[in-house]
């Protein structure tokens, strides 16, 4: 099969959007599309028409046509199957199939067309995969944004609390100062008297008139400028023995704010990160088709004095993983005593960059190693609809899964599903035709749960099911960092560590 171009055109052959998959000039594709309606006027209403050089495979879309232009020796059955997939893609992005809506979503449609055909040949994809590829949804980005937002909120809260402490300290200092004034409390009159006392202690400039009021300089306030009265007031307090933090150091304030925004795990000069990624495909009737786990241990050293170190690793793996050390790491020391260090202990690790020091992986067909088992039962109710029962089971109860989302495809154009029973929350996305079953946490306390709903459709409409989650409490293979020591002298080194279990693909097909 060689597909030359895919286009959406009006009844008179005017191209609304067109995507060429081989080298073609604009005049060539416009000429082919302009000739298409003339061939339709012969009275032969088939799904395809041919000329001496090309074949048009088409399907009506209300007031326009979805047209594929192929070579004459391409397989017509494959052409028709590809045409049906193209016709199903358009309603995914255009709610009202007219010229204005097609042109408004032109780029989205072209990107989707590129996922169906590459260099003239059909790709093995379905509608759900096209949606996933075009959206480029990243679970890792969601986790990063959520962590980042939490850090920003914490930093703002600490800033507000610190600002309240500074204001309270200033009030207490001004109440207890030895500058005279009424003991009835602090008010605007007391503040004015204090300003006058401080101003009198400093020789006035001869150029300033004496009639200028002390409470107003007569000048507009200038943002970002230093106030001399504030500086004089602070100097006066310091001369009397008070410990006052400078309010003019804007740079130091920014540094403090930046420090509160940095994750706690990255504050140490030696930081170790363990990252595990799962790739799982299971069958809808049970059985694990493929499970691949790939993991990497990263080391980052920010201070050159900790370049020559040994890392102690506690390997509690009982799942049969294959381990591999970096070529410059002493493999014998790791296998015999669980210590990761360079073969030459006098040479330091690279500074200020993530260095992979250990990796391991697992490829298995053992269903018991799946962290989360999903069982989906769609039953035809005999009335043109389905009753769907879906349940989950946490098989590795030592794990704590965060932000679990089970995405179930549902038929389009039939309305929202009727939820009968539910553990957790749900969201129906009518545009993407997906029912999302979400649970914030799955652990040993809620290791099983179920959802039941009804909707019009057939059992095949509810697959493939996609699952996403992450875990930071414990690693999948239970690899733990127990300590870091200097290579010379074996003195302990303060370090920080983190581990993350992520999902690259978790699909029930």
Automatic annotation (TrEMBL):
Residues 267-509 form the MHD domain. Gene3D superfamilies: 3.30.450.60. Its main location: cytoplasm. Residues 165-188, 201-224 are annotated as: Disordered. It is a peripheral membrane protein. InterPro entries: AP2_Mu_C_sf, AP_mu_sigma_su, Coatomer_dsu, Longin-like_dom_sf, MHD. CDD domains: AP_delta-COPI_MHD, Delta_COP_N. It is found in: Cytoplasm; Cytoplasmic vesicle, COPI-coated vesicle membrane; Golgi apparatus membrane. Keywords: Cytoplasm, Cytoplasmic vesicle, ER-Golgi transport, Golgi apparatus, Membrane, Protein transport, Transport. Transmembrane segments: none annotated. The coatomer is a cytosolic protein complex that binds to dilysine motifs and reversibly associates with Golgi non-clathrin-coated vesicles, which further mediate biosynthetic protein transport from the ER, via the Golgi up to the trans Golgi network. Coatomer complex is required for budding from Golgi membranes, and is essential for the retrograde Golgi-to-ER transport of dilysine-tagged proteins. Oligomeric complex that consists of at least the alpha, beta, beta', gamma, delta, epsilon and zeta subunits. Belongs to the adaptor complexes medium subunit family. Delta-COP subfamily. This is Coatomer subunit delta. It comes from Clavelina lepadiformis (Light-bulb sea squirt).
């Amino acid at each position: 099969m060689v597909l030359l171009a895919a286009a959406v055109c009006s009844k008179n052959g005017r191209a609304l959007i067109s995507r060429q998959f081989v080298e073609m000039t604009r005049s060539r594709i416009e000429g082919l599309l302009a000739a298409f309606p003339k061939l339709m006027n012969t009275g032969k209403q088939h799904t395809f028409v041919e000329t001496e050089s090309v074949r048009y495979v088409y399907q009506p879309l209300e007031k326009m046509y979805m047209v594929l232009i192929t070579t004459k020796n391409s397989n017509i059955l494959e052409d028709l199957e590809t045409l049906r997939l193209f016709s199903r893609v358009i309603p995914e992005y255009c709610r009202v199939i007219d010229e204005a809506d097609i042109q408004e979503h032109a780029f989205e449609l072209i990107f989707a067309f590129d996922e169906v055909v590459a260099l003239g040949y059909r790709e093995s994809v379905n509608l759900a995969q096209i949606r996933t590829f075009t959206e480029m949804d990243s679970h890792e980005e969601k986790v990063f944004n959520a962590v980042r937002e939490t850090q920003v909120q914490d930093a703002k809260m600490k800033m507000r609390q610190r600002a309240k402490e500074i204001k309270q300290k200033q009030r207490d200092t001004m109440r207890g100062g030895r500058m005279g004034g009424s003991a009835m409390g602090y008010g605007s009159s007391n503040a004015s008297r204090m300003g006058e006392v401080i101003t009198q202690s400093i020789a006035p400039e001869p150029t300033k008139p004496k009639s200028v009021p002390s409470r107003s300089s007569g000048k507009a306030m200038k943002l970002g400028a230093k106030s001399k009265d504030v500086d004089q007031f602070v100097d006066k307090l310091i001369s009397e023995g008070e410990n006052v933090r400078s309010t003019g150091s804007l740079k130091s304030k920014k540094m403090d704010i930046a420090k509160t925004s940095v994750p706690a795990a990255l504050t140490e000069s030696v930081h170790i990160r363990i990252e595990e990624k799962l790739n799982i495909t299971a069958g809808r009737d049970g059985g694990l088709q493929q499970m691949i786990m790939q993991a990497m241990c990263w080391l980052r050293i920010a201070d050159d004095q900790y370049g020559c170190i040994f890392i102690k690793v506690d390997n509690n793996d009982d799942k049969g993983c294959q381990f591999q050390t970096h070529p410059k790491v002493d493999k014998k020391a790791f296998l015999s005593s669980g210590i990761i260090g360079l073969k030459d202990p006098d040479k330091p690790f690279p500074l200020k960059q993530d260095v992979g020091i250990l990796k391991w992986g697992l490829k298995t067909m053992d269903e018991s190693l799946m962290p989360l088992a999903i069982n989906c039962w769609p039953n035809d109710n005999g009335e043109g609809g389905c009753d769907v029962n879906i349940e989950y089971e946490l098989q590795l109860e030592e794990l704590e899964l965060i932000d679990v989302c089970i995405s179930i495809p549902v038929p389009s154009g039939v309305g929202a599903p009727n939820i009968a029973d539910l553990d957790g929350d749900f969201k129906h996305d009518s545009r993407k035709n997906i029912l999302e079953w979400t649970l914030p946490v799955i652990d040993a306390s809620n290791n099983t749960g179920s959802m039941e709903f009804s909707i019009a459709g057939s059992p095949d409409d509810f697959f493939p099911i996609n699952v996403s989650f992450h875990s930071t409490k414990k690693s999948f293979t239970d690899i733990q960092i127990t300590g870091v020591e200097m290579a010379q002298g074996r003195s302990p080194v303060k370090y920080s560590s983190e581990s993350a279990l992520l999902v690259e693909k978790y699909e029930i097909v």
